[in-house]
Amino acid sequence: MKRILVPCNFSSYAEKAFRFALQLAEKSEGRLFVCTIISEPDALPTKSSMSEEIAREKFADFIMRINPGDVPVEHHIHAGKITVAVSELVEALAIDLVVMGTQGSRGWQEAFMGSNIGKVVRTCPIPVVAVKNDTTLSRIKNIVFPCGMKPEEEQLLSKVKMLQEFFDARLHLLYVNTHPRRDNQQSMQHLQKLASQYQLHHFNIHVVHSAIEKDGILQFAREMNADLIAMGTHGNRNPGNMYVSSIAADIVNYAPTMTWTCATERRE
Fold first, then answer.
1. Which residues form the UspA domain (predicted)?
2. Which domains are present in the chain?
């Protein structure tokens, strides 16, 4: 978490994301890169359209009000789509984490078209943190990691372990049993084996029943008042798959708390 990218349209949600990213950078002795997306020169103006001049003015006011202290902050302006901008900046600036503000799903339009954060989560090759509320590092005490017994999810556990250690939090390994007749004991044993394999400390193992995996994860997170949900995603950059159902993107949109997603494999 040394080089952190924060997409910013200067909304209250973007400010929450920036303030959290600032805490991360302070702890890791890193730097922040703020990205503002403006419309293409030949695009029709909309309510959210912003010129480069206005973007620079807003950024200057934004930084003066928040005061990042000793943390270095760079501002980048990019015309076009947010997924393209994030992808290009991640590669050009050697970014290792994206922190993005969101208010979650706002109804049928985003359920059909996908929110900006959902699109970034689906396509980004590096970890993405979605921030919904004002929070501090010290408040992150319980991290939920849903594990569906897939090899790529299990391999992600090493990164989740580092995340747990960074926040000094308790890790909750969760398996959602979508088959009523499947034996929970076998699932518990598998999770315990994983915990031993990765030499986990300060963790709990949970198996819950739900007909739909996404609903089981969300319900568990709400019941235990989780501070962060960590999940793997395919990191599929093919535009043709942008609107294919994604559990991780759905969790990001509908979870009541912060999420951390990371590509388990990179697909073009």
1. 1-132, 140-259
2. 3-101 (3.40.50.620), 137-263 (3.40.50.620)
